Amino acid sequence: MNKVIIYSSGHCPYCVMAKQLLDRKGVVYDEIRVDQHPEKREEMMQKSQRRTVPQIFINGKAVGGYTDLVDIDRSGQLDALLTNN
Predict the structure, then answer these.
(1) 13-24 and 66-74 helices, crossing angle to 10°
(2) Closest Cα to residue 15, out of 49, 44, 46?
(3) In sequence order, what E strands does 1-85 have?
(4) Residue in 23, 29, 12 with CA at minimum distance from that of residue 73
(5) Is residue 18 within 8 Å of residue 66, measured between CB atoms?
(6) Membrane-spanning regions, if any (predicted)?
(7) Which pLDDT does position 46 carry in this prediction?
(8) Residue 49 region by backbone torsions, left for phi larger than 0, else alpha for psi between -120 and 50, else beta
């Protein structure tokens, strides 16, 4: 089973859009809210080398934020990433 993690915050419109895209694809994901758990922001930054949310990981691989996710989807590679174990 694929493991998808999204680091997000409650006031981030890009986080909402990223989750909506994943929801439309039927993807089950774990959401880590860095606004509710500030210590998780440091974890996110170490894993992704980025400070902004959302940060999305598929099977441990950082894919980036919302615009990166959209680019991957438009290129047709997202479905392959989500089905590749």
Answers:
(1) 30
(2) 44
(3) 4-8, 30-33, 55-58, 61-64
(4) 23
(5) yes
(6) none
(7) 95
(8) left
The upper half-sphere exposure of residue 79, i.e. CA atoms within 13 Å in the direction of its Cβ, equals 5
Tokens standing for residue 27 = 């993807």
**And the tokens for 82?**
């989500």
- Please, what's the b/e burial string for 50-72 (b: 16 or more CB within 10 A of its CB; e: otherwise)? eebbbbbbbeeebbbbbebbbeb
Q: Letter for the amino acid at 43?
A: E
Tokens of residue 73, six digits? 């989807």
The pLDDT tens digits for 38-59 are 999 999 999 999 999 999 999 9
Flag whether pLDDT at 62 surpasses 90.
yes
